[in-house]
Amino acid sequence: MKHYKIQITDKALSDMEEIYNYIAEQLLAPEVAMGQYNRIADAIETLDTFPERVKLMETEEERVLGLRQMPVDNFFVFFHIREERVIVTNVLYSASDIAKRLRDS
After folding, report:
1. H or E stretch covering 20
2. Disulfide engineering: 88 pairs with which of 22, 29, 79, 96, CB 3.0-4.6 Å?
């Protein structure tokens, strides 16, 4: 079975940190924040095998880029596959303006 190296961009790490901080500080739920952070990290780790199981995004612009969107609870992990690497580009809240946030990142 083919294994991919997972690369998490600084932007994706920053997104995960923002998610953690919002839940821990704004919602006053640090245990929940850590659980959510870990679920996202664990889901990203599963992309080392068969990341193609996550379908390409449907909009033409994202399809051309090879961008894929994996749901994790109320969040989406965005990534693309390049050769032997899975590159995680963003982790965003599903109710946010995803198209705008992807353009801005």
Report:
1. helix 10-21
2. 79
CATH class name, domain 5-104 = alpha beta
Provide the 3-class DSSP secondary structure of residue 67.
coil
User: What 8-state DSSP symbol labels residue 55?
Assistant: P
> In a structure prediction context, what are the per-residue pLDDT tens digits for the chain, which is 105 residues long?
899 999 999 999 999 999 999 999 999 999 999 999 999 999 999 999 999 999 999 888 888 889 999 999 999 999 999 999 999 999 999 877 777 767 776
What are the extents of the domains in the chain? 5-104
CA atoms of 13 and 4, how far apart (whole Å): 19
Residue found by looking up tokens 């909009």 in the block: 59
The tokens for 67 are 């961008």
Instruction: Residue 103: name the closest of 54, 53, 67 by CA.
Output: 67
